[in-house]
Design goal:
It is a single chain. The protein is an alpha+beta fold. It has two domains: about 5-70, Arc Repressor Mutant, subunit A; about 75-145, no CATH class. Helices cover about 30% and strands about 30% of the residues. It has four helices and eight strands, in the order βααβαβββββαβ. It has a four-stranded mixed beta sheet, covered by helices on one side. A two-stranded antiparallel sheet has the order 1-2. The longest helix has 16 residues, at about 55-70. The protein is elongated, with a radius of gyration of 21 Å. The chain binds zinc ion. The site of zinc ion has 7 residues, from loops.
Length: about 150
């Protein structure tokens, strides 16, 4: 699995050699080259390659934010707490959007409440995942919007 990299140790006004990045994070130089392929910006026209500290930070932060929002089946993302969370009492409402994702499969929103900050939390889902939804949440009610 991908590990997390502390991006606060990056010097923003420093340009790193790929080998230095490899040293800072204790990762193989091939991993750093892979990051370049994935979109880590290098300073144009220079060899050996240099990476601006601020580009390195932006790249890793973005990458890790993407990882962070991967939710478990029983979680809904809370925008206030900035993490996936099991809704209050495990309970959700299913609200059909009136739209389909194709093949007549309806999509719906799972609506719950964050047990920490009591904000309304939502997760988009669809009928294909209904079994998983029912296995993980208590469904208080289903609201079918007329379309
Ligand atoms: Zn919250």
């Amino acid at each position: 699995m991908s590990k997390r990299y502390n991006t606060r140790i990056i010097k923003l006004n420093y340009s790193y050699l790929l080998s230095e990045i490899s040293g800072v994070y204790g990762v193989h130089i091939r991993t750093v080259r892979l990051w370049v392929k994935e979109g880590l910006e290098i300073v144009e026209g220079l060899f050996p390659y240099l990476v601006n500290g601020k580009d390195l930070k932006a790249f890793l932060d973005k990458r890790q934010n993407k990882m962070k929002t991967k939710l478990n089946d029983n979680e809904i993302y809370c925008v206030k707490c900035k993490k996936g969370i099991i809704p209050l009492n495990n309970s959700v409402e299913i609200v059909y959007s009136g739209k389909t994702i194709g093949n007549g499969i309806k999509d719906f929103m799972l609506k719950g409440i964050c047990p920490i900050c009591l904000t309304n939390i939502n997760r988009l889902s669809n009928e294909n995942k209904l079994d998983t939804v029912k296995a993980n949440f208590i469904i208080i009610r289903e609201i079918k919007k007329c379309s």
